[in-house]
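Reviewer 2 asked us to include a model.

Predict the structure of this chain.
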Amino acid sequence: MGTIDIGDKELQKRTAKAQGTIHLKRETLDLILSGDIKKGDPLKTAEIAAILAVKKTPELIPHCHNIPIEKISCDFNIASESITAEVVVRTTAKTGVEMEALVGVTTALNTIWDLVKYLEKDKEGQYPDTQITDIRVIKKTKTKE
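Predicted model (structure tokens):
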């Protein structure tokens, strides 16, 4: 097993957009919106966590190359019983940024879960309503430099 050789590939502008959703209780979402979460703002914390995760992707996934990250954006859409996170990553490199975008999304969603888990547990300490779903790459592009 070896790494993939990207040495002969051309530099290209590359962008990847990934998305995923966390399903929460309506009461939890109301507390997020009102700013009443004990540990702080889950969305701001998740945004920072996503940015850090994107930058650390090559440390987490063995075959990801260390590439220059030019832009990271993390946005959230709150629905009646869920939050959808969207992470966009841009680089000029010899390989893409899909994995970075996916790691950013999953880390953002896991961070939200961590900050609200005390609200999501049932009497037995389980999470019957909480789940992370629909993690996927929405779009990727590449254009010659």
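The longest helix spans residues 98-120. Residues 19-144 form a domain with the Alpha-Beta Plaits fold (CATH 3.30.70.640). We have added this to the supplementary material.
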